[in-house]
Amino acid sequence: MRINIAIMVFDDVEVLDFAGPFEVFAVADELRGYKDFNVFTVAPRPGKIRARNGLGVVPDHDFASCPKVDILVVPGGFGTRALLKDSVTMAWIQERARVAAVTMSVCTGALLLAKAGLLGGLRVTTHHELLEMLRDMEPTAVVDPGARFHDNGAVVTAAGISAGIDASLHLVGRLLGPDAASATARYMEYGSGS
User: Fold this and answer.
1) Can you name the CATH fold of 3-193?
2) 152, 171 Cβ separation under 8 angstroms
3) What is the pLDDT of residues 37-58, one digit of tens each?
4) Is 107 a catalytic residue?
5) Buried b (16+ CB within 10 A) or exposed e, 124-146
6) What is the pTM of this model?
7) What residue spans define the domains of the chain?
8) Torsion angle of C-alpha atoms 146, 149, 153, 155, degrees rounded to 10
9) What is the pLDDT of residues 158-194, one digit of tens each?
10) Given 8, 107, 143, 175, which residue is catalytic?
């Protein structure tokens, strides 16, 4: 049974925040014969979204049509500020995180997880410019910028932008083993695995 990996997209989402994890999980699946992951994008509403700096993206699903989610990836970007006030999005994140095996934020996606009540008491991180905002939003969390990501089991948070690739490779290793993560990094010519 393939693992469903839903990657949220929304207006003003940071491109690498969602595209980096998408590439990692999709490449890992390709290298293993398309048997492990079903990777797709999901947006709050139907229709094309406009990512940061104008990139147009047509999501695979909206919230209403989204299939079962095993891993939820919540990226960041300037669009997270509007979503913090969007009760439909916040409720959807809470609902999906309750049943997902892992909920992972990238960059300021951590703010959405904090608002959804998912970061209490955990060691977390986000983009270096928003660390204080994250501390204010979830004072019980240990906001630690000393690592590119923190794995708390059911919740993983990654620092800014490219750190989502590191966290995704880590999850590939956790789910499929270190050899799969190394092969994925090598194929992508990323970091020490290249």
Assistant:
1) Rossmann fold (3.40.50)
2) no
3) 999 999 999 999 999 999 999 9
4) yes
5) bbbbeebbebbeebbeebebeee
6) 0.96
7) 3-193
8) 110
9) 999 999 999 999 999 999 999 999 999 999 999 853 3
10) 107
